[in-house]
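Weekly modeling sync, notes
Attendees: S.R. (lead), two postdocs, one rotation student

Agenda item 3: backlog of single-chain predictions. S.R. asked that every request posted to the team notebook include the full sequence so nobody has to chase files. The rotation student volunteered to paste the first one in as an example of the format we agreed on. Action items at the bottom.

Example entry:
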Amino acid sequence: MSILLMAVSCTLDKTDYENETNTAVTEHYEFKEAATVTQDHYKISIETLNGMFYQGYNEMRLKVFNIQTNENINASEVTFLPVLTKADGSKTSCPYQYTLNYKPNDRYYSGYSVFTEKSNTVINWKIYLSFTVNQKTYTVHKDITVNEQNNRNLNMTSFTGNDGEQYYIALISPQRPAVSENKLVAGIYRYNKPVAVTGNFPDPSQFSYSEVKGYTLQLDPRMPEPSMGNHSSPNNKDLIQGNDGLYHGVVNYTMTGNWTLNFILLNQNGKIIKGTKVSTDFTPGVPGTKSELFIDTLF
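Predicted structure, as returned to the notebook:
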């Protein structure tokens, strides 16, 4: 009977979901230069996927060059800090990696930034960088443009948990899912409330975020549009933290279309930080109910 109902539900008239699913999803695997800034004899080049900064998770590669010799040099204490200035002049940030890791084989510094908002006419993103060469520290800054993320498989969400803390979940992979079991990767971060203002701007202690450690992100994917009846899929796996600090699981997409990733976030003690269970009832003809913690995807 459930199989028959599924078949009938897929024949119901759709609204504008049909046009949405025709949206082409482009995968980006090549790192290109997204921004450069110079200081004295040095140039810093920041590379991102597709050479652009996007709302959501951005993996970054930073290189330091000697302008006179065009040599890629090994600096030390390379740091990165993004700051958002809002229309009222207030300043905030987003989850990011402050001290970048050096990759000696590839000769670049790796890090990430989870930009929470796209740039527009009333808000502005600026990045602050520092590096040390020959025991001299250089500090530079650069205005950047954060673009809208058109790939909904890389969406993100922010929320206040039941513990009163501010959290962020950003989808990282897959960029372009298949109709199959897909490895699902996400970053989970928490804002660290500053104790007191102690340093001069930009003081990184006022814009501090950390990777959430040892949590579990329970997963229940469903197709929420009325013609799909909010049905789910088998063989999904909850997301748990890997050695890379990111959270890894499996989402099984049984067909293309709009999917909602319903989540329940549990801390190390199994206490619910955010999220609610979704009813298993099959509901053709009405929009599906979502968890209070979810991210919509589309492929």
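Discussion: group reviewed the output briefly. The chain has a mean pLDDT of 91.
Action items: rotation student to repeat for the remaining queue; S.R. to check formatting next week.
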